[in-house]
Write a structure and sequence with these properties.
The longest helix is centred in the N-terminal third of the chain and has 28 residues. It contains 17 helices and 36 strands. The strands form ten sheets. It has a six-stranded antiparallel beta barrel with strand order 9-10-16-15-12-17. A four-stranded parallel β-sheet has the order 2-1-7-8, sandwiched between helices. By secondary structure, it is of the alpha+beta class.
Length: about 775
């Protein structure tokens, strides 16, 4: 019988580790957090030094009992949750739940799920790092206060069910402000002039107008462009200068969480949520069969902003590069990349756990997504340790009647790291200063003063383009540059603002909805601190200081509350003075009765077009979904990752939308068909049959309440049940959805009572 217990977060990770440890160890999974703040109340005693009230997470009672039983029977309990703030906090909650004194905790962590890393960690346990725990607690408490204090004001003044989040509100603001830039953009006219020169041997050389001997010159209108065209028409061009150089192009560093999400978005077209899901699978372990040592963790921990690489990994890369490509492909000394200031350096950069596991060797054991992402990580790491590429560059100027035309190109004289990997480049935007110049073509041998004939010069009219909308890659880059959030939160931020309908996708781009624009305007007016880039970035720095022992949780929370409470008090007094309406979305359909442009409305059976003059004009029309709307609807139906694990096979559970609402399903479907209803016990008895009333989630994840015995008992309600009794008729009172009101549902009673405080947030409103 095993007398040592190892607790990890996920069942798939547990399965991997079981293969590394002997029969003396039992490995079980907590399946994420076991305790959290309650969802029905704030759960933070602000007046008593922000004391947090943690409770066991609903639905985990049986799992907690099992863990307690195993822990009681074990001689040693090793807490092996993920090696970051969240993982440290989960270990702390586990220790509290199991009643393990802090001084007796055996906390272990490893950057890669490999046999050597796990065994080394078992030999060197430590106590729980309370600085890490308090950093996570501070983030959780601040986010809870922001969400629970602001959300009721949004429900009351904008729309029921809205919620505010600290970083999510800032991300929405970024997208809203970019859309405002696009809408206010005034195009500027500019012209280009291009020609095709003919060298000896029939080689054609495309060139573009650059300027004169005095410097670069813009062509602002047709008159200026035609002046150049008329001057050079029918004339020969003379080579006025040839500039050649050899350029060393260094490889990109190995991936951090942020750069992995950006590059996988550009190269693979993956969305951030999908990237992190697949990376988690690669980290926790894949069964590669007996040929490659069974189940293996293929990459190091995927939540990091460090560029550090271990000496062992560098040596493995050096040996591989020298053997595969030769010594000239490895630099004189190992490459060391400097991690930017403020980054958390607890873990290495993202790299393959074993260099010898080349992507092609194990392709058959990986899914298509796993192979693509692993190949990207593996190649980026190997390239990051290789010699620079050598590029022979050439830039040639041609003179014709005092006007200079230019072309440039390069050839690769030594591939270096480019033999393995090239970084994807961001799409360049044409402007009047950068008019899409001709570059990187292979040029024939040319000599100064050589003359070349030319085709007629061609003038082209252009207009400057507005800023481009953000996509996954560019939004993540912006968040990182501004210091907003942390690498581990980017995917969640994007998922949240999409789910709340503050933002929608059009193709790969993010576009704010009218709801997102109105909410951002309200937040900027009444809660400027919350949506301020500087405040949000400073909060991340303060969380880092708590982690590093330079600040305390209480100091940071008191400082935050001192400013936030004043804004909250002022907002409660002024936010309802002006009517706030979410403008309806207009269509191109004209009302057949009164000629007004119809707007989109939501009805029982979905969206439809309605006359804006309702109720004077009641004309409606069915809507045919546009391709963009169909794509958006498809996006809404995409499965949402969860922290839950399949009870049958240990794979990730996902949240799916079905005909009758949302439910949890195994991500390995159809191989595994395990599903679980998405319900939550309210603690209130059904007024019809005395069974439990549970929270249920309908289409688009809307919340309602019904008897757990449904359909045998048909009780259901949109309003939240309470345990309060009506003083008139003795029946249950319900909290009116989105309102600060208790009501009796008995038709003949009519009792209602105003509540002194705003309604508590429901599960999908936090």
């Amino acid at each position: 019988m095993a007398n040592n217990l190892v607790i990890v977060e996920s069942p798939s990770k547990a399965l991997t580790i079981k293969g590394y440890l002997g029969s003396n160890y039992k490995v079980i999974a907590s399946i994420g957090h076991v305790r959290d703040l309650p969802k029905s109340s704030l759960g933070v005693d602000i007046e008593n030094d922000f004391e947090a009230h943690y409770i066991s997470i609903r639905g985990k009672g049986d799992l907690i009992k099992e863990i307690r039983k195993e822990a009681k029977a074990a001689n040693k309990v090793f807490l092996a949750t993920d090696p970051d703030r969240e993982g440290e906090a989960i270990s702390w909650h586990l220790a509290a739940t199991l009643g393990i004194p802090m001084e007796k905790t055996l906390r272990i962590s490893f950057n890669e799920v490999t046999k050597s890393a796990v065994k080394a960690a078992i030999k060197a346990p430590r106590q729980i790092d309370m600085n890490l725990v308090n950093s996570q607690q501070t983030r959780r408490i601040v986010d809870r206060i922001v969400g629970y204090k602001i959300s009721p004001l949004l429900w009351k003044n904008v729309k029921s069910g809205l919620s505010a989040g600290r970083v999510q509100s800032v991300a929405t603001r970024i997208i809203v402000e970019r859309e405002a830039e696009i809408n206010s953009f005034v195009p500027v006219e500019y012209w280009t002039v291009e020609s095709l020169l003919h060298a000896d041997g029939g080689k054609s050389i495309p060139v573009h107008f650059w300027g004169t001997a005095d410097g670069k010159m813009k062509l602002n209108n047709e008159e200026e462009a035609m002046r150049v065209v008329n001057a050079v028409s029918g004339k020969d061009y003379r080579v006025s200068s040839i500039k050649k150089a050899t350029r060393h192009k260094a490889p990109a560093p190995p991936f951090t969480t942020s750069t992995l999400q950006q590059e996988a978005s550009r190269k693979l077209g993956f969305q951030s949520q999908r990237i992190m899901k697949v990376a988690q699978e690669l980290y926790e372990g894949i069964n590669l069969g007996s040929e490659f040592g069974g189940t293996q963790g293929l990459i190091t921990y995927m939540r990091t902003d460090s560029l550090r690489i271990s000496a062992e990994a560098q040596e493995a890369a050096r040996d591989y590069i020298n053997e595969k490509y030769g010594e000239k492909y490895y630099p004189e000394s190992p490459r060391v990349y400097k991690t930017k200031n403020g980054a958390q350096d607890a873990h290495e950069a993202i790299r393959p756990a074993r260099v010898d596991l080349e992507p092609q060797k194990i392709r058959k054991m990986l899914s298509g997504e796993q192979f693509k992402l692993y190949k990207l990580i593996w190649e980026r790491f190997i390239a990051s340790q290789m010699e620079s590429a050598l590029l022979d560059t050439v830039s040639v100027d041609f003179d014709c009647e005092g006007y200079l035309f230019r072309t440039s190109g390069y050839s690769v004289s030594f591939q270096g790291y480019m033999a393995v990997y090239e970084e994807a480049e961001e799409e360049a935007q044409n402007t009047a200063d950068n008019p899409g110049e001709v570059k990187n073509i292979r040029l024939p041998d040319l000599k100064e003063e050589q003359k070349l004939s030319a085709d007629d010069a061609i003038p082209t009219r252009h207009f400057t383009e507005p800023p481009v909308r953000y996509n996954d890659a560019s939004l993540i880059k912006m968040l990182e540059e501004q210091g907003l959030g942390r690498p581990s939160t980017y995917a969640t931020i994007i998922t949240t603002i999409l789910a709340r309908n503050y933002v929608k996708r059009e193709g790969k781009a993010f576009v704010p909805t009218p709801l997102g624009e109105v909410t951002t305007t309200l937040m900027k007016e009444h809660f400027s601190t919350v949506v301020d880039y500087g405040f949000t970035a400073d909060m991340e720095d303060e969380l880092d200081e708590i982690e590093n022992g330079k600040a305390t949780m209480l100091e940071v929370l008191k400082s935050f509350w001192a400013d936030f409470s004043l804004q909250l008090q002022k907002a409660e007094e002024t936010i309802g003075q002006n009517s706030i309406e979410v403008p309806p979305e207009e269509t191109d359909i004209l009302c057949e009765k009164c000629g007004q442009r119809m707007v989109v409305r939501n009805g029982r059976f979905g969206k439809f077009a309605a006359c804006p003059n309702y109720p004077a004009c009641r004309s409606t029309k069915a809507l045919t979904a546009s391709p963009a709307e169909e794509e958006e609807e498809t996006e809404k139906k995409q499965p949402v990752p969860t922290d839950m694990k399949c009870e049958k096979c240990g794979a990730d559970m996902i949240l799916r939308s079905g005909k009758f609402g949302s439910f949890y399903a195994c991500s390995k479907y159809p191989e595994c068909k395990f599903t679980k209803a998405r319900t939550r016990d309210t603690g209130v008895s059904c007024p019809k049959c005395n069974a439990k009333i549970v929270t249920k989630y309908g289409r688009s994840h809307t919340v309602f309440y019904s008897c757990e015995r449904y359909p045998d008992c048909d009780f259901s309600s949109w309003d939240m049940p309470t345990n309060e009794i009506c003083p008139n008729c003795g029946k249950l009172l319900f909290r009116k959805k989105g309102k600060n009101l208790l009501v009796c549902h008995e038709a003949d009673c009519g009792y209602s009572r105003e509540l002194p405080e705003a309604p508590a947030a429901t599960e999908n409103q936090e």
